[in-house]
# Entry
Amino acid sequence: MARVVVDPLTRIEGHLRVECEVQDNKIVDAWVAGTLYRGMETILLDRSPEDAFYVSQRICGVCPISHSHASAQATEDALGITIPEGGRLVRNLLEAAQYLHSHILWFYHLTALDYVSPINALSANIADTYALAEAAGTRVNDFGAVAARLTAFAENGQLSILTGHYWDHPGYALPPELDLIATSHYLEALEMQAVANEIVAIIAGKFSHPMTSVPGGTAFVPTVEKLDDILFRFIRVKEFIDTALIPDTLAIAPFILDATTYGAGTGNFLSWGVFEKSSRVAEERYLPRGFAQGLAAETVSPDDVTEDVAHAWYSSGTGLNPAQGETVAKFTEYNMDDFPGESDKYSWGKAVRCKGLSTESGPLARMVVAYLAEKGGQDLTGGATGVRTPAALIDSTLEALGVAGKPEVLVSLLGRVAARNLEAAYVADLALVWINELIEALRGGDVKFWEAAETNNGSGVGAWEAPRGSVAHWIGVKGGKIDHYQIVAPTTWNTAPRDDNGVRGPLEEALIGAPVADPERPLEVLRIGHSFDP
Amino acid sequence: MAQEAHGAIYDLLAVRGVSRRDFLKYCSYVAAMLGLSEAAAPQIAAAVEKGAKLKPALWINGGSCTGCTESMAQVDSPDVATVVLEILSINAFETIMAAAGHDAEKNIADTVAAGGYLLIYEGSVMTGEDGNTLLVNGHKGTDILEEVAAGADAILAVGACAVDGGWVYAHPNPAKAIGVQSFLDTVNIKTPVVNLPCCPTSPEWIVAMVVQWLLVAEDDPATFLAKTKLRTRTYRDTVTGRDVTLNYPEYVIGSTIHDNCPRRGHFENGHFVTEFGSEEEAKGYCLYKVGCKGPQTFTQCPITRWNRSVSWCVQSGAPCIGCGGLNWVDNNTPFFKRLSSMQMGDTLGNVQPGSVAAVVGGVAAAALVAHGLGMKAAGRIGPDGPPVETAKAYDRKRMAKKGGDK
# Structure
């Protein structure tokens, strides 16, 4: 038995500890700890609802738009506001830009280095690299120039952000030519994530921390010129997704096919639904609200959520729905030397549960819920043309990987990686639909963007989806001031510790049974951890 | 094999189609931000292209949301790859570094042992629950900061959270978050700190300060503060109970948002947005009446703007929420309400609007009074504020006549 600890787990948002018990090169138990507490919910009390819109998004600098949308929706639910159509479309576009930014950044800059070695790329044959890129149908860059840049960098002997990593781990199994292609796209993706964020800036002032999706709609009033600026950028980013992100995923997949055999997690999937339709029904969103167990669809509501604190450093009540939730921090001890003891608390994250179950959220959950909805006869896109739907994307990918008709393969490490990138393709297609809808609406002349509240009192919930998972904000407003606020953030779902019954969280569960070729260099732990984009 | 000391960066820039001319143009831009003349551009180019050995740096995340890292990834020029691969050797950078776990910790320890590095710190310093509100492999965040700060040549505290605790410091500050300078004062660490405000901070401000450090570090890192054009602010930290004096670059906080706002003309003409999503917003009217904190927020956001200069908060239709100020959440909420007494000054620390003994002066004040906005008083306050504008009789008359507060 060996204890493998990864702390800090880098290339994520925030601070996370992963601890595993390894026996015969297999993980037999795991604990995941969030190691930062800031107290957002307490800080929001007694402020105005619109203040929560601006402050609560600052819980996460990588998915602030989704938090801001959940917060605004909670206020709108509490105060009885239905945002106008213009506001709906602008928010969809803003959210889409963040999704594309986030998924591109995640694949190339956060997880790619678990599979791709820029050091191995140094030995690539340039001519073969072009041939491989062509064969894989992926984007051609000036590979010779990139190789020269890498060589100069490596020969200088200072590896900067690449310092101290186990590049000689046998898990780095790609041919050097593919390493060079992916490294080249790593650099190009830095530009592309920035282009996606320029869309955010045009609509919302800046990224991180957008400014305009205020309760009631949006403060951004588009002009045809601004929409042109946005459209042009969406087209550029979509092209990169189609010509790099998707083909790169398919090119790398054959080298890591064993990643379909572990990393499954709990198999319980939640999606609050994201990207609103005119109907404003969460179950009809472009990525619909739903729950799945064993690849069977169920309905779900924010009332199904509870948070346990038996293993988290809080003295407040346990098993509460966030509408009645409390957050009172109380650090006891972190018994690291003799871990875990009987009732050891080990995380600043609460154990959130849906229907009492340890539940995964994120792109895999959303794509599974959407896939099941489509297979059940639901039209996700409202007949929009030129959109590759989740079912079409998943089925064609399963076929390309030689497992046609077997969606259960998705419930794995590789499936979680692929689902995120396929979702990017769907969202990029949708963005072009919405922007055309908005241009048409502006031409029609009667489009509104913001609606004032009629009341100062109420309670509500905004349940939405961030790129990395399900996000919901619960608010109570009395006399225009917040008297209750609770947040269940995306990563709270996935990196939850054990609940009051000792049931593992989704990432903890996903680690069980995974191979660890070298406990000193737990590359597989990084891969599984990053697959949740925590 | 060491690469040639000269010209290496040009080869690298050429790979991405950046000409020497573009590069020097960029250096002129940095020179302007640093308050140097354009003649300093070659000197800046030399500092950036040093070539043979990259200066080491550590980017450490405290109680952060990673928003300032995200902001850094949106830097305009040089792009972020150039910064992290070819200008600095950032041996630890939690969000993008390859290494994890004990390898990541070793990178930090090795860099600290070798010394001569720049520390970039993002996020609040978490002192709550006896420092256990931030733990990295069992080490308190405060202990880690102490270790990396003591050995650093200089520190950049990036973003509102690192400056004074940011939103996490806001009442009731349940995790007892504080800023970097405040924390270092309590443990008597004298490493120079330069603060970069806003939530998140601007990547262009970071790069300008990195270049400044490279320029200075070549000769004598100890002269970093002395050779940088600074402005200070002092506040009373409610957690430590101590007065804290912060250094900021002059170029960042030397003027208000209002001073440089493209919507300023509408302010002076009495053209206001009174409702979001309105016709007035489509016309780009002034956002003061929906709560814009531009008149009391000292940053140069309207000049550099955000996300490679495509826009910024006010340009997108949102009022400034004052995230460049001290204790910015408490001092600026409710964000959509006009302050009953404008806090036009940058030296007030935690003083709440309404308890400010303000000095009336300036076109702004005249305009506000003329518009009947219920201002008790307004003006620029404090010895470190920018020069007070002289209200011209002509302006006053024009304001009074035009009115505009409907």
The two ends of chain B are 72 Å apart (CA to CA). Chain B has a mean pLDDT of 81. Residues 213 and 224 of chain B are 6 Å apart (CA to CA).
